[in-house]
Amino acid sequence: MRTPLIIANWKLHKTIRESLAFVNKFISIIGKVYNRDIVLCPPFTAIYQVGKELSGTTVKLGAQNLFYEEKGAYTGEVSAEMLKEAGCSYVIIGHSERRKYFLETDKIINAKIKKAESYGLIPIICIGEKAEEKDSGKTREVVGRQMKEALRDFTSTQLEKFVLAYEPIWAIGTGKVETPEQTNEVIGYLRNLLSSLYGYSVASKVRFLYGGSVKPENSTSLLSQKEVDGLLVGGASLEPDSFASICKV
Ligand code: PEP
Fold first, then answer.
1. Nearest CA to ligand 1 atom 5
2. Which of 76, 36, 31 minimizes the C-alpha distance to 228?
3. Which domain holds residue 49?
4. Cα separation of 126 and 105, whole Å?
5. Which residue has the least CA distance to atom 1 on ligand 1?
6. Catalytically annotated residue among 95, 97, 129, 227
């Protein structure tokens, strides 16, 4: 059985003060949750204090990015070791906004996943097609290639804990949502591909999430799909009430 996983990606939102106010209100609404994993991914500046505020709760901490080198002259970057020491257990890697604005390639993403894995951080690997790729029937080809490139050189045992997030790019922050049936179909395809490459046992353990304009109103139908193990939530994770209602589905 795969434990459902709901992740908040705050992107470039929330100061430390705003992050702590969110946590206080969110925890008071949600209480202790045992039958699913909930992860908050604040901006780097708030990570440490959010982690301290979450201690004693069942909510876990994640980051939105990391760098693939250990240390050195890489102004502005943050390492896996720094995130681990700051209390993170998860890290988002390869989000389409990073691919678009920071020119991250499949090769860079693979290097970042390797670094995260070596420090025991669980990577949340984002993959998804553009609108024109969907329209020309290339969804499977694009997401299949992204997944294979992201997982290059890993062993089956290493992969078991990884999280893959299927996020159609045209659905992110647009209010357009992929249908639950189509989401289930794409994730089912990816899980079969994973099974053919690494074996059924691994493919049945890896958690696949959907992301892209998730709201309290559409989360039930998405989560009721057999292949959908959870949700990666951007905009609707910024308010404690709306994120809590998604977490309670
Ligand atoms: C995301 O940030 O990964 C995302 C899916 O954003 P939104 O929920 O706002 O579409």
1. 212
2. 36
3. 5-247
4. 12
5. 234
6. 95
What per-residue confidence (pLDDT) applies to 32? 86
Listed as own residue / partner, the contacts of 192-198 with beta carbons closer than 8 Å and 24 or more positions apart are 193/144, 193/147, 193/148, 194/147, 194/159, 197/148, 197/151, 198/151, 198/156, 198/159
> Which CATH number is 111's domain given?
3.20.20.70
pLDDT at 34 over 90: no
167 noted as active-site residue: yes
Region 148-154: what's the mean pLDDT? Answer: 98
Ligand 1 mean position, distance from CA 210 (Å): 10
Q: Look at ligand 1, atom 7, and give the residue with the nearest C-alpha.
A: 234
The verdict on whether 13 is a catalytic residue reads no
Q: Whose CA is closest to atom 6 on ligand 1?
A: 234
Q: What does each C-alpha distance from 83 to 42, 86, 164, 228 come to in angstroms?
A: 12, 5, 20, 28
Is the pTM above the cut of 0.85?
yes
Residue among 191, 179, 242 at smallest CA distance from 215: 242
- The answer to whether the CB of 216 is under 6 A from ligand 1 is no
Instruction: Return mean pLDDT, the chain.
Output: 97
Spot the catalytic one: 53, 97, 129, 167. 167
Q: How many domains does the chain have?
A: 1
Q: Give the number of other CB atoms < 10 A from CB of residue 44.
A: 14
SS3 for 191-203 is HHHHHHHHCHHHH
Across 181-205, average pLDDT: 97
- Of the pLDDT bands very low, low, confident and very high (cuts 50, 70, 90), residue 140 is very high
pLDDT for position 1? 83
Taking each helix axis from N to C end, the angle separating 216-223 and 240-247, rounded to the nearest 10 degrees, works out to 20
Ligand 1 centroid–CA 73 distance in Å is 32
